[in-house]
Fold each of these.
Amino acid sequence: MSQELLEALLAGDAPVFHPNTGQEVASGEEIILSPSASAGLEAPRFCQLCGRRMVVQVRPDGWDARCSRHGEVDSVYLGRR
């Protein structure tokens, strides 16, 4: 399975699609987020590379998310526990 999403997140690449809404970031539209998403407390629901909805599992100690095209990422890799 591809690890492209994990590599992009670890490298700090700017997202093409917003991870909480799936909207294209370059579209210039205002992105309205919930307070918890604005604070960075929610798991990403959309792949930041392709905008596809991801399969997300929220656990007591973090989360993991999987894009069918770009692979899986776990909050442990990002230091978000």
Amino acid sequence: MSAAACVFCKIIKGDIPSFKLFESEKVLAFLDIQPLSRGHALVIPKFHGAKLTDIPDEDLKEILPVAKKVAQVSGAQDFNILQNNGRIAHQVVDHVHFHMIPKPNEKEGLGIGWPMQDTDMDKLKALHEELKSKM
């Protein structure tokens, strides 16, 4: 998707209104219009890219500090910071975005399944060596 067709790029440009919480040269934070709970907000880089790996490091430096501040001002005691990459990973809008989702109780906020796998220590050791060599 091109930046011109991107809903978040249109929000950044002001073509689509939003409930802005914070804006700087590289970052925008605004309330989600389909919230999972009160205070659910999005923090996005202004640089257009579909996946986290598409965004230059320089454009990511403010993201977590801004998400932290949004969490603090929301008053949430418990919350999730969520960032999805790709359709099967539940990404709907093809512009990197971080959700700050307050979790006030079991019913509201983000619900997660966590399908843990049994550990094969030999395979885990081999994977560790493979990944570490690429870092």
Amino acid sequence: MVETLQVERLLVNYKTLEEFKRFKEYGNQELSMLEDLQSNIVENDSESPFFGIYYGNALVARMSLYRVGAKYDQYFNPPQDYHELWKLEVLPDYRGQGYGKALVDFAKSYDLPIKTNPRINSHGFWEKMGFQKAHYEMERDLGENPLIWMPAGVEEKETGENPE
């Protein structure tokens, strides 16, 4: 029996931040969130880029999803708003149970192209989710190897170099 996993926008608050400490990929985004909280700039209901899935009261999977405006689009044709997906992570005891797929499906539900920079050893997961390698462009990608997903009617932007 597969229950539907509920993806929700995570509140910007100390409880969420405390839960993030259980994830390996704990870094600059969370620290800047902490600074915002400490200086009381951020309200509990402000638009957080983080989404997650709870198992009971515990946050067991999360990602951040940023919308990037069309004027910055260097990946897709026609140029358009797209999402950058970062920090997709499922706690070790919950892997292989559909949490990562539920987060990716949620991101796809906006029907915007998605770009991600996968962590080492995660390419297989992203390929199963329908992502493909973007043609590498040195100035744009700066040593990253982005993967992209495109909804119907969207193509990868042609690069200035000859295709392989």
